[in-house]
Amino acid sequence: MSQTTTALIQTEPTHAVTWRALCHRRDLVANSGVVAWLDGYQVALFHLPQVDDHEKVFAIENKDPKSGANVIGRGIVGTLKGELVVASPLYKQHFRLKDGACLEYPEQRLRVWPARLQGDTVEIGLDS
Amino acid sequence: MNSLVTPIKRETLVVIGNGMVGHHCVEQLIAHGALAHYQIHVFGEEHQRAYDRVHLSEYFGGRDAESLALCEADFYAVSGVHLHLGMQVQEIDRERKEIVTTQGRIPYDCLVLATGSYPFVPPIPGAEGNSRLVYRTLSDLDSIRAAARTARRGVVVGGGLLGLEAANALKSLGLEAHVVEFAPRLMPVQLDADGGEALRQRIEALGVGVHLSRATQEIVPGDEYAYRMNFQDGEFLETDLIVFSAGIRPQDALGRSAGLDIAPRGGVVVDNTCRTSDPCIFAIGECASWNGSIFGLVAPGYTMARNVALQLAGKPYEPFTGADMSTKLKLLGVDVGSIGDAHAATPGAKSYRFIDEATSSYRRLVVSPDGKRVIGAVLVGDNSYYDTLLQYAQNGIKLPQDPSSLILPLSDGAPILGADALPDTATICSCHNVNKGAICCQVDQGCTDLGELKAATKAGTGCGGCSALLKQVFEHELSARGVAVDKSLCEHFAHTRQELYGIVRVEGIQTFEELLAKHGRGHVGCDICKPAVGSILASCWNQPITDPLLIPLQDTNDTFMANMQKNGTYSIVPRIAGGEITPDKLIALGEVAKKYDLYTKITGGQRIDLFGAQLHQLPDIWGELIEAGFETGHAYGKSLRTVKSCVGSTWCRYGVQDSVGMALYLENRYKGLRSPHKIKFAVSGCTRECAEAQSKDVGVIATDKGWNLYVAGNGGMRPRHAELFATDLDDETLVRYIDRFLMFYVRTADKLQRTSVWRESLEGGLHYLKDVIINDSLGLAAELESQMQLVVDRYECEWANALNDPEKLKRFRTFVNDGRGDPDIHFVKERGQRRPATHSELHLIPVTEEAL
């Protein structure tokens, strides 16, 4: 995969995916999250305009496993020991953006999707 | 072959008395393995197991008997010690080596007397019932509390340490308190004349009456109060109750009747090993007389207890050779310290004195005839000098060039005795006899946490007076070993909140990114530093928190300006300043709640909370609320919440000021102020205190002359009464003090620290805070006021701001690419309103009945 002038593909898909447009760049909020609807799934999208000199978008499941509430997209983004994480707004446990692993409770894990910016379109990678 | 293990017949050890010293002795016996040699029986006359008598007055400040207990309820049982509470030992039969109780006889091989002392009540005609109360046990305190219920005024006879404690207790029960002392000054044992005078002035300023050189001749029925105390010179004082605290007498009755040697002034005579005239019987604590002296403090009692426990455990021990009677106390909130030869009784001793009549502070330093060592000191008003002076005295440290610098105000650059200057033998905690060497030893073994250190050494867990010094020594030893003492906010900022606040203000920093780039690490931050910095930026500059650069810093509640509940929906609390609301606005609130089907509940802060709104509904709901004249209530923020009020003089027959008017003014002035934690106010219109102002961060209570200001109280998990800060203020002064108080808190408190915890962490305590706020001792007052004015001037309703900006409203969408609501949110009806469905109710709800 190559880097476009505006964005870097965030999560390198390890297998063939179909890219699908989910929303517009202006729907994102810099350094924070929004939520998109995807055929019954709720996808939290986090936009980081500048991480290691790159612009990145992460797509991660919106349902907090601990409370069962759809709130992950409203958590605070940060780094812990060098890893990008989001803190659940209800009980503050941290999930790694790149793979959805929970730092405090290994049994909690969120689904993640490959995501990228194609020009001003936010795209998400689905298994073909 | 015979077993190598011969069953050892354990001897019986009886401990009579389960007070602080008796309990400590048992703890030490257990710790040193004495249970291998003895089965231990402990007898306590009271029904409550050993409790902390040093902090007895806190029993009236909200602590109960359980929280004062010195050990867990099952400590004795778990350790294998037989504890007999509520059982009085009636006799010691030394010939048969048995003790006699109402339940029968128990044989002993060894006996420890730890029966303590009892309060001395001088024989005064007419002293009985409520005019003959004492202050020693929890049941004494129950009697005082019962007597106080119908009382307006209370008198303590005795102006010593315990008498002043008792006066404080009366005061905290809401009585007008008086102290009657026979000597011409307060605390005659510990203080000299000037020290006593400074203490009197301070205590009188707190509203406690002080009557010196008074001997009570008789107590007769009073005219205006229940009793009248007639003094020797024809003067009198009327009161509803009298507490005697005129000294203690050793509880030596058992020893006396058993024929043990008794000292001329009372107390069972003991030698350097705490043995009585019967070698099988020891006596420790206040019932023992060593070299003709009784030691009425906990530290010497603990030393005796350790001495005996080590002997009985067969371990090496140091003989008891008297004790240092130096004390550091806070009496009625006033610092009092006395070290060694406070009266300069040593022939040839020289004194240095510092007297500040403006603040009634007094310090005296007594040095040896050769002028090389500290042999005594007296402190009134400021104990920050105590630790250093005590170390000089106890360790014979050579005096600095100019000894007076040790007691002059610290701003003059006095040489502070650093932790490194102390020898390893220096006692840090005298209650548990922990010296600096023991602390170093723990640090060497890898201890890096103050809590761990306290658990391991017990240092700082007795009277607590050494806490500051302990922390200082510990941190010094850590840094000496290259261990960084970590005060960092998080991994992105190696600063405390206070430091970051200073940086933001001094450098005029406006954004998180700028602060992170200049003073932090990385490019992102985390959920610890972002909200903390967001709050600091808001406190300093009060820009709308809806600004794009500030949004990512906020917790979800601040971001969406509503309170997230367990199912991801929000609750909404419009401001209802002072709890005053017109019928029209109340109807408007009801209409909005009804339209959006919001669960409605009245809050503890006299407002109305509307629950169950989804993210995308918030702008519509707020549009209607603002239309009806509401503004945001900041229930979601670390900021001013409410100013609760009673109706005050406008309606109430008892009210003396317009409490609602003042509450409205204060709420409108401070609304929107971002702070380290939430802040709550209340204003009461008279002393009946219907608004519960004394449980708030800022409490205002009307007087006939103006307002009394209370600060740093709170409810919640660890309730704390607010402290009286200033009295009879006019409106303008009241507001000025609150401006300064709040800004000083915002400036110096730690992240998520309520005013109560912050106030307790202030070195110098309430006195220091008053100095800063009222006397402007730091020269900060004008700055604090102008900073507050900036915040007040920039106030803007955050919801109105957001509704005017389509860009900002974009965030309030449940899904950015779809108009539907969250299909996973389900409600059920309960008591006529909806509430979140529980997990077990969920599968009962057909998908088609989504409550949207």
UniProtKB/TrEMBL annotation, chain A:
* Domain of life assignment: Bacteria
Q: What Gene Ontology terms describe what this protein does at the molecular function level?
A: 2 iron, 2 sulfur cluster binding; metal ion binding; nitrite reductase [NAD(P)H] activity
Gene3D superfamilies named among the record's database cross-references: Rieske [2Fe-2S] iron-sulphur domain (2.102.10.10)
In what residue span(s) does the Rieske domain sit?
20-124
Q: Which UniProt keywords apply?
A: 2Fe-2S, Iron, Iron-sulfur, Metal-binding, Nitrate assimilation, Oxidoreductase
Q: Which PROSITE patterns match?
A: NIRD, RIESKE
* Single biological process term from Gene Ontology: nitrate assimilation
**Any keyword Membrane?**
no
Among PANTHER family, the record links this protein to: NITRITE REDUCTASE (NADH) SMALL SUBUNIT, PTHR40562
| Record protein name field | Nitrite reductase (NADH) small subunit
Q: Which organism is it from?
A: Pseudomonas duriflava
Q: What is this organism's lineage?
A: Bacteria, Pseudomonadati, Pseudomonadota, Gammaproteobacteria, Pseudomonadales
From TrEMBL, chain B:
Its required cofactor(s), as named, are:
FAD; [2Fe-2S] cluster; siroheme; [4Fe-4S] cluster
The NADH-rubredoxin oxidoreductase C-terminal domain is annotated at 326-394
Q: Please give a single GO biological process term from the UniProt record.
A: nitrate assimilation
Q: Which residues form a coiled coil?
A: none
**According to the UniProt entry, where is the signal peptide?**
none
Record-listed [4Fe-4S] cluster binding positions: 646, 652, 686, 690
Mind listing the GO molecular function terms for this protein? 2 iron, 2 sulfur cluster binding; 4 iron, 4 sulfur cluster binding; flavin adenine dinucleotide binding; heme binding; metal ion binding; NADP binding; nitrite reductase activity
User: What pathway, per the record?
Assistant: Nitrogen metabolism; nitrate reduction (assimilation)
Pfam family name, one? NIR_SIR_ferr
Cofactor binding, note field: Binds 1 siroheme per subunit. Binds 1 [4Fe-4S] cluster per subunit.
The positions annotated for binding siroheme are 690
Residue limits of the Nitrite/Sulfite reductase ferredoxin-like domain?
565-627
Q: What does the UniProt keyword field contain?
A: 2Fe-2S, 4Fe-4S, FAD, Flavoprotein, Heme, Iron, Iron-sulfur, Metal-binding, Nitrate assimilation, Oxidoreductase
**The keyword Metal-binding is assigned to this record:** yes
UniProt entry tagged with the keyword 4Fe-4S: yes
Q: Which InterPro entries match?
A: BFD-like_2Fe2S-bd_dom, BFD-like_2Fe2S-bd_dom_sf, FAD/NAD-bd_sf, FAD/NAD-binding_dom, FAD/NAD-linked_Rdtase_dimer_sf, NasD-like, NiRdtase/SiRdtase_haem-b_fer, Nit/Sulf_reduc_fer-like_dom_sf
What region holds the FAD/NAD(P)-binding domain? 13-291
* BFD-like [2Fe-2S]-binding domain location: 428-475
Where does the record place the Nitrite/sulphite reductase 4Fe-4S domain?
637-758
To which protein family does this belong? Belongs to the nitrite and sulfite reductase 4Fe-4S domain family.
Q: This chain belongs to which protein, by name?
A: Nitrite reductase (NADH) large subunit
Q: What is the lineage of its organism?
A: Bacteria, Pseudomonadati, Pseudomonadota, Gammaproteobacteria, Pseudomonadales
